[in-house]
Amino acid sequence: MVAMKVARFTDQQIHQMRRAIIPRPLVADELSISISSSRSCKVNNQGTTATAPNIGATVLPPLPSYEVPISTNVQGDVYTGFPKGAEDFIFFTIADANAFKLWLRDYRPTHSFEVCENLSMIYEKKLHSGAKAQCNIVQTQIAFSRLGLDFLGETEEIHDLYFDRGPMFHDRKLMGDQSAWDPLFSRTNVHVVILVAAKCEATCKIAVDELVAQISPSVKNPETDISILHGRVRPGPHKGHEHFGFMDGISQPALRGLTDTCAIPGQLTVDPGVIVMGYNGDPNHDDPHLPKRPDWTKDGSIMVFRKLQQDVPEFDTYLKRNGRNWREYLPKEYAGKVTLTDDEGAALFGARMIGRWKSGAPLQNFPVRDNPRAALDKAVNNDFDYSIEGERGPSDIRCPFTAHTRKTAPRQLDPYLQRKYIEAAAIIRSGIPFGPEVTENERRYGKSDPSPSMERGLLFVCYQSCIATGFMLQTDGFAGNHYFPITGLKPVKHGQSSSLSRFPSGVELNNPVHPGQDPILGWPSQPDPIPDNGSRDCTIKMSANAANSVANVTQEFFVTSRGGEYFFVPSLSALKQLAGN
After folding, report:
1. Separation CA 171–CA 179 (nearest Å)
2. pTM to 2 decimal places
3. Residues 251, 362: contact at Cβ < 8 Å?
């Protein structure tokens, strides 16, 4: 592909773009905006709340001294994130490359600056019209698998190990995906995915139908070669929560020079190239020993997509069953001082698996009971580390080392792990739940309805410039690493993640050879210790910092991976080149 020159911008234009981008970490869900009497605006970014900035302010932050991504050239979901109540994913296989390129010439995805303008418009409408103001905005994004780029004649590698050797199906064992994949992904012939996000299902469907009609001439059989997965934000009080009930999307990184101007206390700030290719933070940009990426990859990103099925009634039953034994895993500093109900014990057990309460409040700050009010306070919800006064180094007294958020988003590991290393592993998450709410019958009997129409879970999406240092490092190097987080010069075995890759609440499987895997996200990459009778139970013991260090818990599994794929998200200028413009 011949490199295309991208227009650069004046300082004033960059200032204007940054002003538009400033609301981004605080505004993501137009469905969750409430207006206060002081004309401030609280908005819910699937867990993040804040007072909206003065969009018309004349005082702007200083320009960065380094190059940053061009917001009009980066597709919109990568780091700004689509505001959405409904999001559909159109997967398809191209049969006629010329027909597809003809369509691509006229296709215009939503770029990041446009998303910021949309967010500002949403804010203004809510401010003046109240919570019921309508913003029927449709936003789209397109991305390509390795097979898709090859089919279109772009065979040059982007120098990402996992993407270039794709599809994801080849990495099933590495990720521990031993379950049956959705045929959509196991056939390994997906070329393209188009994301369509809107406020409501009806608006989303209209846009999807139009796009399907437009791309149909480029596929062999629209009935079999086009597949659509439907994501929906959960209704009412569950908005922003995934199906297990935990607030999602709370702790996202801010990008230096772009979204760091409004970073909240405790928020991780990373170089923009960690997410967007071609800038500081992109390993292939920074390391002279790594091959340089093609020019057309600049302002692009890599999207990892996974379909994760969740057994919600079974998970709830598991929490309730273990909630009765709350004294056995109550932090030792509270032993004999606190009395919990069984329901509170169940909530604590779940919080020790995840690292946060269902409200999103951090377990480290609230180690015994949830604090929904604090979960809404941006000055509190991310402003913490895992230190304990009087304890040397990182401590697991309040939050187990194996808790999901502690494993995948480590904090304060100096001097054992440099902050830059932690920053380099950051990803932007942009997933959405799928499937119906749990029915009364399912809740009553504690068992999921086996009907395909009743499947529910998470359509996981994340963005990074390098899969190895992003998604894979978090999944295998952090969550699946018994000795992570690093807490001293001498390696200490903590166990694998309680929710991304292995098991719950500061627990360790008794089997020292094949320690098993996570109840939240799938099967172990180690040989399967499950007995021949098909039982998925195994014995685990609680952290030594619990009140009773020898308590046993039966581990069960509640998430099944149904597959996924790696996609390259080109810049708008690269799309024009790919189309032949």
Report:
1. 13
2. 0.85
3. no
For 29-57, the pLDDT digits (tens) are 433 333 222 222 333 333 333 333 343 44
Report yes or no on 76 lying in a domain: yes
What is the number of structural domains in the chain? 1
Distance (Å, whole) CA 33 – CA 49:
10
431 lies in a domain? no
pLDDT of amino acid 173: 87
CA–CA separation, 295 and 573 (whole Å): 11
- Say if 511 falls within a structural domain: no
Backbone angles phi, psi at 198, to 5 degrees: -150, 175
pLDDT at 499: 55
Catalytic residues: 248
DSSP string of 258-306? TTGGGPPTT--EE-GGGTSTTSTT-HHHH-TTSPPPPGGGTT-EEEEEE
Q: Which residue's structure tokens are 């799309």?
A: 575
The tokens for 305 are 């997509």
**Distance between first and last Cα of the chain:** 11
Q: Is 441 left (phi over 0), alpha (psi -120 to 50) or beta?
A: alpha
Predicted pLDDT at 547: 55
CA distance 462 to 474: 12
Domain residues for 169?
11-309+564-579
In the block, tokens 């061009």 appear at 70
Note whether 562 and 91 are within 8 A (CB).
no
pLDDT in tens, 204-241: 999 999 999 999 999 999 999 999 999 999 999 999 99
Residue 275 CA, chain-centre distance (Å), reads 13
Q: Is residue 159 part of a domain?
A: yes
What SS3 string covers 60-81? CCCCCCCCCCCCCCCECCCCCC
- Nearest Cα neighbor of 253 from 84, 82, 515, 48 is 48
Tell me: pLDDT of 315 over 60: yes
Give 496's DSSP letter: S
